[in-house]
Amino acid sequence: NAGVTQTPKFRVLKTGQSMTLLCAQDMNHEYMYWYRQDPGMGLRLIHYSVGEGTTAKGEVPDGYNVSRLKKQNFLLGLESAAPSQTSVYFCASRTGRGETQYFGPGTRLLVL
Amino acid sequence: GENVEQHPSTLSVQEGDSAVIKCTYSDSASNYFPWYKQELGKRPQLIIDIRSNVGEKKDQRIAVTLNKTAKHFSLHITETQPEDSAVYFCAAGLFYDMRFGAGTRLTVKP
């Protein structure tokens, strides 16, 4: 039981490049989330999903897209990376009934 | 949407003392209030949570109190130890849409 995993762990992009961050969970959780964490600002919700095939915008969705084609995976895409998207990205998941949220280890993204 | 404010941003205590971190929230519909501990370079981990129908919850040295009328909740850590040093985040909202405070860096001096 790996819990919540994220790939890659670290990535450097040039402005304008695109990439996809993968989040996977093996706990059969319904709800999945993408957050970004910047110094002194806590965690901010980018997008979330309440089930396979569904997605919704969070607090800071601009510049990001997501997909939840399989229940266990939640993908975060950056179509045209900007330096303002330099951050640590955390994925999280929780059950539909329970409320404990489990976080992945994070992906550190640097956009030059 | 929900807005969460957390105070203080930094807190330094002597080992064995108590530490209190406070959060306020804006949306009266919020019904779930978790607290997370994050060590340097690690993921946030849930340490305690409280739901809107409960006023207080305790787990060993950690307790959380909730005042729904005033829209604030607090984390209390007693008998602090050096390993309690970390950044603590509060959050508030509905379980599918949580907003986080900016964090409190707690330092416990031996």
Structure, explained:
The complex is a heterodimer of chains A (112) and B (110). Chain A has no helices and eleven strands. With 112 residues, chain A is mostly beta strands. In chain A, strands 2, 4, 5, 6, 9, 10 and 11 form a seven-stranded mixed beta sheet that branches. The model of chain A has no long low-confidence stretch (mean pLDDT 93). Chain B has strands at 4-7, 10-14, 19-25, 32-38, 45-51, 56-59, 62-67, 72-77, 86-94, 97-100, 104-109. The radius of gyration of chain B is 13 Å and the shape is globular. At the A-B interface, strand 5 of A face strand 5 and strand 10 of B.
Taking pLDDT < 50 over at least 5 consecutive residues as the criterion, the unreliable ranges of chain B are none
What is the chain-wise order of helices and strands of chain A? EEEEEEEEEEE
- What share of residues are in beta strands of chain B? over 45%
Order of secondary-structure elements of chain B: EEEEEEEEEEE
**Proportion of residues in helical segments of chain A:** under 10%
Residue-averaged pLDDT of chain A: 93
* Quaternary: heterodimer
Determine the number of helices of chain A (DSSP H or I, runs of at least 4 residues): 0
Largest sheet of chain A: 7 strands, mixed
Short description:
The complex is a heterodimer of chains A (112) and B (110). With 112 residues, chain A is mostly beta strands.
Please write out the topology.
The complex is a heterodimer of chains A (112) and B (110).
Chain A: E1 4-7, E2 10-13, E3 19-25, E4 31-37, E5 43-49, E6 56-57, E7 65-67, E8 73-78, E9 87-94, E10 102-103, E11 107-111
Parallel strand pairs in A: 2-11
Antiparallel strand pairs in A: 1-3, 3-8, 4-5, 4-9, 5-6, 7-8, 9-10, 9-11
Chain B: E1 4-7, E2 10-14, E3 19-25, E4 32-38, E5 45-51, E6 56-59, E7 62-67, E8 72-77, E9 86-94, E10 97-100, E11 104-109
Parallel strand pairs in B: 2-11
Antiparallel strand pairs in B: 1-3, 3-8, 4-5, 4-9, 6-7, 7-8, 9-10, 9-11
